[in-house]
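Why does residue order matter? Because the sequence determines the fold. Keep that principle in mind as you read this record.
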Amino acid sequence: PTVEWSSIKQDLHRRDFTINTLAIYLNPTHWGEMLDFFGGKEDLENGVIRVLHSLSFVDDPTRILRAARFETRLDFHLDPRSEALIAEALPLLDRVTGGRIRHEMELIFKEVRPEAALERLQALGALQQIDPVLTCEESVRTLFARQREELNSGFWELDEADIRRLHWLLFLSPFDKPTLKRIAVRLMMSGELRECLLALADLRALLPKLDRLRKPGEIAGHLSPFASPLVAAAWLLAEAPATREKLLRYWTEWRHIKPALTGDDLKKMGLPPGPLYKEILAALRTARLNGTITTREGEETLARELYQAPEADSQEA
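Structure:
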């Protein structure tokens, strides 16, 4: 591509909002003087988010999402003309790639109060334009507030990517699998994020069951397939104190308990390797968690019993 010289005014005219068009002279003769071609200083003082020209949202519809983000972060407001231009430009969001929309949404998630920007996007009609079912209802706003006030990311072993996944889990928590699949495709989500979202539906169905389960082995067996962002999301989603307590016990204690025997030990015992190993080790772990077995010898006895059981079943058949 050809690089062309441009005046500072032309460069600033390509910015999104007037408050982002202010510049300062750095040359010695005018050092420190402010350049304000578009009234940005006055808008900054008055708390106004204003686009520079009528085609601003047409040129880049993702500015709609940025407008809501800046409004709620700075406690500013859109001027009436800019808000009217957003209403006209909403259909143009359909032309924006899912990756760009996803990126702007993830910038919103990083805000101190992401639910405020999401609620504003709902009021503007932008969420519904991305997908007709998207909202920021009270339950979602409560989840984001709960995450901010109660969740310790270090405790739940969440890195930056995990936190990003958790935000999506909270935002999309009301929806079923078909809806989650559709949104994941629209926003060009990675396979990993998509699988995490689909697991969310299974996790939500599991929460009422956790309230009824009493044995640690059963609880751990149900929760072990879920990665840390999902378990943290479950803790935020759970309403019953007893369920939240079980999730905490699983995270701090039960998930760390393993059987003494390993696959190599099963092989040394003369059990031929195969898919049954996984079932045997899971059963040994459950027995350890429930306290029905406390010794290595007890595990060996149970392993032999479990290995012989399928043979007996097949002979009876």
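The beta strands are 23-24, 34-35, 48-49, 77-78.
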